[in-house]
Every structure is written in structure tokens, then in C-alpha cells.
Amino acid sequence: MPIRPFRAMLLSLVCASISSGQDAKAANAAAAPPNILLLVHQEILPGRASDRQRLETNIARACDRLDAPSFWIDLQSLTGPREGLFFDTFDSFEDLEQSDANWRQFYAAHPDVARLKDDIDALVGSERTIVAVRRDDVGYLADSIDLSETRFMRILEVRLFPGRENDFVEALRILADAYRKIKADTPWMVYQVNLGMSSPAFLILVPMSELRQNDDLLSSRDNLLSAEGEEGAERLKQIARESYASAESNLYAVKPEMSHVSKGFAAGDMDFWRHKTEPNSRPDTRPLVKPAVRSSHK
Fold this sequence. Notes:
Layout: H1 3-14, E1 36-44, H2 49-66, E2 72-77, E3 84-90, H3 93-109, H4 111-121, E4 124-134, E5 152-160, H5 165-182, E6 189-195, E7 201-208, H6 217-243, E8 244-254, H7 263-266, H8 270-273
Antiparallel strand pairs: 1-3, 1-4, 2-3, 2-8, 4-6, 5-7, 5-8, 6-7
């Protein structure tokens, strides 16, 4: 990827509205960014998106009632490939591993939910799963993030040439320093991919409460370029030239009706996260294609 387009993409991803100073509110610990992130990208078979939405809503509401063993946020792509993205949260790899056993027990105890899961699997055309670890040493205002307020999520997936991880971390620190100088108020968090990609990779996630947080892109970019300083800007160009293999930035919308979150998480906005509609008692029984293999809990 050319240096200038990539650098513009990185800046546009984390470009934020400028704040003259806003009152910070207490963080919701139940909605803090997870230590371990499981992302499951799914492309749905053509013509079956409405079936998938109905079934996902049914299983999410059933899991709300039955206190299922782990949680997820459902994201739908607004750019890039038309796909669903499960944003699963875990405190540790031990919790991630234990969740598999817990879900097997859960499905055995609730065969009706297991049936819904099988019906959903049958609608999946392709799937890829990524496991990533939060990097607390980089990011911007990550401690202030409350995922329960997220309505849109921008995700930048960066693949690096082998051995260039430290250079990318340096670039992130330069950008974070520029954001502090201009007092940008939209936070972003960084995850390093642990499983699911053949080359070194990072994810930069920008949760947004409103889509218009992208509106100040051009003015923010000018301020950022100025705040970087000549030396910082030149170093970013060098890192981009020598370290970046590829990058892709996409925007997703949160779908609460197809998500299953904890009560503490939902408490931040119960009307948004908890819907009063009940799952259909009789799922669609039309013949479906052979299920695809899924590596997520669902």
C-alpha cells in the first residue's frame, strides 16, 4: 500500500472531534474493553440475511433469559464486505478456553437453543476468527471507553512485515501524543492479534456513540499533522514505508437485538440493549444448506 494513502487511513481512523474540555463521567467497569477479544467475521449466504437476523435475535433473547455462559456484541458492516461480526469479550485465555466447555453444557441443557445455533450455522457462507490481546501501553484515552455507549465501531486491521511490531507501536505512540496535544476527545484502543492471522497484525478499534463523530475528519487531520511536528511526521512516513504490509479500515453498526451482554453492561442503557420482543417459539423449519464449521461459541 502506498505510504500516503495508508497514513491518511490511519489518521482518518482515529480522527476525532476536538473538545475544549468535557466533564469525565465514572467508567462502567462492566463495559470496559476486554483483555481478550474474539472476533468472528461471517459472510451470510446470499438472500438469507433476514433469516439470519431473525434467528440471531431469537438466540440472543433466549440467552438473555437463560443466563448463557459468555457475552457478545453483534456488529453489521456498513463498509467493506457485507458481513456480520461477533465481538466476544473475555478476561483471560483461561476464560476463553473454559467458555467452550460451558457452551457445550449449556447447549446440552437447552436443546432448543442448540437447534437455533445449528440453523444459524447453516446460513454462514464463510467465516474467519481472530483472537487478539489488548495492548494497554498504546491507544488513546482507552481507560475512558464505555462499550455500552457504542453504536458504531470503526476497526482498522493492520498487517505488518515480520519483525516490525515495535515500529508500529512507535507509530501509535507518536499519534497518541499528537492527539493529546490537540485535546481530541474520541478514544481508541489497540489489540495485537494472537491467533487467526499468518503475519503480525494489530487492530485499532474506535467505538463511537454517533456516526457524526467522523464529521470533523478534515479539520482534525490538519491539526494532527501540525501536532506531529516535522520529526514525528517523517518518522511515521519511514515506519509506513518499511513496516506496513497492508491495512483495511471498515465501519460497523451495533445490533443490540442480536447481541447478548451482561446485566451490568446493559445497565448503561437498558432501553437500547434489552428489547421487549420475545423470541419466536417455533423457529423456521425450512430445509437449510449443510452447516459450515464455526469456531466461535455460537
